[in-house]
Amino acid sequence: MSPKLQLPSAVPVVPKTGRTKYDTWTREQLVVEVARLRKRKKYGLVFEGKPEDVAERCKIELPVLREVAANELVSDKNLPTNVLIEGDNYHGVSVLNYTHKGKIDLIYIDPPYNTGARDWKYNNDYVDAEDTYRHTKWLSFMSHRLKLAKNLLTKDGIICVAIDDHELFTLGLLMNEIFDEKNRLGVITVVHKPEGRNQEKFFGTSNEFMLVYARNKDKAKFNNVVFDAEQQSRYEEEDEKGKFRLKNFIRLTDGKYSLRANKPHFFYPIFVSKDLKRFSLDEKSGYGAVLPITNKGVERTWKTTKETFVKLASGGDIVAKKEEGGIVLYEKLREDSVIKTHWIKKEYHGYHFGTKLLETILGTKKFDFPKSIFLISDILRLTTKDSSTILDFFAGSGTTGHAILKLNEEDGGSRRFILCTNDENSIASEVCYPRIAKVIQGYKGPSGEKVAGLGGNLRYFRTAFVGAEPNDKNKEILTHEATEMLCMREDTFESVKETKAIKIFKNGKRHTGIVFDEDDIPALKKDIIKIGGVWSVYIFSLGDDTFDEEFADMSKVTVAPIPEAIMRVYRRIFQTT
User: What is the rounded distance in angstroms from the CA atom of residue 446 to the CA atom of residue 362?
Assistant: First the structure.
């Protein structure tokens, strides 16, 4: 019988050399140690990654975009340009890692729920309930995409992922791993079918979930919104900071802390100027003192300490009014509410405000279980600014794009969207794109009535590929195929000049120049001088030349070589995902 091997419980480092004790172990000792480590329990998510064809393809071919010019929609050049990408979202999000790294304010996705009902494919095969690796495939599928998506968020960006109970727990662990548990903002329960599914044996499921994470919780911020319509109606006044209602600054409730005797440090004089516009805690000439005393002579308290009052007053949130009996102070209560984790508005129900709405727009039922437009609208109102960029790379029927156009029309915002979906079962070409087109241009309702368009601009792209081998031929091909990617990166879609050697595009603020031969740099410089303004210039180079010297005399021009910058991004993401 061989002697029992004694292994240390910890692995000390050999001083100075940086080597470990493992370096001196025999093969037999290492085999035993590996077996021990395999049995060790780990808190978190452990799964066997499954190779995915769309990811493996990127090792030999690089994704690019090609525009489908016939699908372009323009209602007003002054409005932002939205984007729809037809193709596998792994490839679409890979392209965005070059064009939109750190530029996306909100990611909302509604991925396949992995119910076992053959509602999604892995390597061209539907995944059903009998697939032994069903959960592993789903985790691999989501992990690939979420890791790429994280790179796209701004420093204060937020991601929301819809899910049901089939993968809720595994998704939570995956999100903790990729975005860090400390950046989880909440897990929302959304009631979408209040009557419950009547075919289920035990509980009739009536809700889904939404996991909300920040890129950095310390920088993320929600907007002050109220989802409840009845509560909203109470905020009747408005100033430059938004809607508000006035509430007496004296604490009038009959609690023990509303009386001076019980909370004396909340009883202090506030001095108000004659024009009722200025406030002070110190006595001033021409200012009158106001105390928290009711008309009946009861000494109560102010709602806040002196320090908080100063902040409110300096922020314009205290109002003084002359009323019978003297001067009354009011606080502006903003349109604000605690955002609860159970969302129960009837407008979130999927059938009436998702399925039926889509049928009305398209004239027929072509998609199962679209999300309620009101649910997406409230997510947008909570998490985005009026100029935010929003990404949905499981775009499905296009509800996210529709909701953004609708919200822009309501509040005058300039939010823009990027939608990505494949065309399986013609979802991109016969559902998502037609829906967005009709919403932008207008359409006829079920009774023939005209529904006005919301306006907006859209560019339609399909994913394509070029060889990944970094030889001269592939570099030249990638440069010529990168035009649409550069337009997206710079948000300059309007063509100014297109020749074999030079292409120029613009928006209302800047121009983009693309030079395919460095010998044509002088020609582009002449165009820049003639047109003026701010420019981003991309120049083809087989190496990684900067060309800074050629543009040293131009202060409003930034220069970058291509395609090396694109290939550098792809090398990074395809090695790590």
Answer: 10
Distances (CA, A) of 359 to 353, 354, 355, 453: 10, 9, 6, 17
Q: What type of residue sits at position 358?
A: L
Bridge-based pairing state of the strands 250-251 and 73-74: unpaired
What's the CA gap between 432 and 94, in Å, rounded? 21
Rounded to 10 degrees, the C-alpha dihedral 376/395/150/339 comes to 10
Q: What are the tens digits of pLDDT across the range 162-215? A: 999 999 999 999 999 999 999 999 999 999 888 888 777 888 888 999 999 999
The proportion of the chain whose per-residue pLDDT surpasses 70, expressed as a percent, equals 94
Are residues 157 and 105 in contact, defined by beta-carbon separation less than 8 angstroms?
Answer: yes
Q: Residue 443 corresponds to which amino acid? A: Y
DSSP 8-state assignment for residue 6: P
Strand ranges, E, within 297-434? 301-302, 318-323, 326-334, 342-343, 389-392, 416-421
Nearest to 323 by CA among 251, 260, 246, 265: 246
pTM to 2 decimal places:
0.82
SS3 294: coil
Q: What is the mean pLDDT of residues 220-242?
A: 81
Q: Which residues contact 16 (CB under 8 A, 6 or more apart)?
A: none
Report d(CA 401, CA 391) in Å as an integer: 9
Q: What are 253-280's pLDDT values in tens digits?
A: 766 668 998 899 999 999 999 999 999 9
pLDDT at 403: 98
Q: Going by C-beta distance under 8 Å and a sequence separation of 6 or more, which residues neighbour residue 395?
A: 84, 401, 419, 420, 421, 432
Q: How far apart are CA 569 and CA 358, in angstroms?
A: 38
| 315 pLDDT more than 80 | yes
Least confident of 91-95, 118-122, 479-483: 118-122
- Please report, for the chain, the start and end positions of each structural domain, with discontinuous segments joined by +: 1-40, 63-227+339-461, 236-334, 469-576
Secondary element (H or E) of residue 143: helix 134-150
Fold assignment, 63-227+339-461: Rossmann fold (3.40.50)
What pLDDT shows up at residue 14? 46
The phi and psi torsions of 316 (rounded to 5 degrees) equal 80, 20
CA distance 38 to 83: 46
